[in-house]
């Protein structure tokens, strides 16, 4: 049987494929201009429409597979979390075995009684002896069987009570473990808040630093510097730090540390200004 972990991994692959298909669908939207399209552009639009049709079919199949896997994952998880039936105690197993053995002996006694009933009653000595033993065995066996049934019921009740006690202890342990894990999560979240406050305070310094750069008097290529102060640059930095999933940044964004980008572009963007005035 496939485990829930295996199904979840398969589901994640299907969802990743759905994301890639969506990106490809967007990339294959028809070209639109406020003019008549050229022959090459019309040809490109035909290609895009054909690909978009195939993508739509693939997305439909992919969504159906995702639905199937979500259902399978829920069922597998429920089966794994379902409590396992408790095993009977050794004492209860022994009593049940004795009952089964006694039931088999009683069946034999009844067969002997049926076999020798007529001849025994008519006076056959051997048959009468066998009949007498069978009747005595049945009488004693029936009483013993009743006693065993009572003992089994009491043993089952005792096992059930012990199982309830174990379940209560297990639930208490799991609850304590959950509370402890929740406390760790709260600590993590509070630390995350602290880091976000630090990032916000650090980001607030950017405007003053940009102003200082503009007022420095150096020749600055703003086409280059503007690339550093857009959202895309920060998205690439988040990807480099492995935070693209945290901030819902597309996985196709290239990773680039902000410090590396600033160092490279600012080196090219800043130039020594030309001297003013004429040389005598």
Topology:
Elements lengths: L3 H24 L11 H43 L8 H32 L3 H80 L1 H9 L4 E2 L1 H4 L5 H10 L17 H12 E2 L9
Antiparallel strand pairs: 1-2
Strand content: under 5%
Order of helices and strands: HHHHHEHHHE
How many angstroms does the end-to-end distance come to?
A: 92 Å
Helix percentage range: over 70%
Overall geometry: elongated
Number of domains: 3
Mean pLDDT across residues:
90
Across the major sheet, the strand order is 1-2
Say how many strands there are. 2
Q: What's the Cα radius of gyration?
A: 41 Å
Residue windows where pLDDT falls under 50 for at least 5 positions? none
**Structural class of the secondary elements?**
mainly alpha
Number of helices: 8
Biggest β-sheet, characterized? 2 strands, antiparallel
Q: Which features does this protein show?
A:
280 residues, mainly alpha, 3 domains, two-stranded antiparallel sheet, 8 helices, elongated
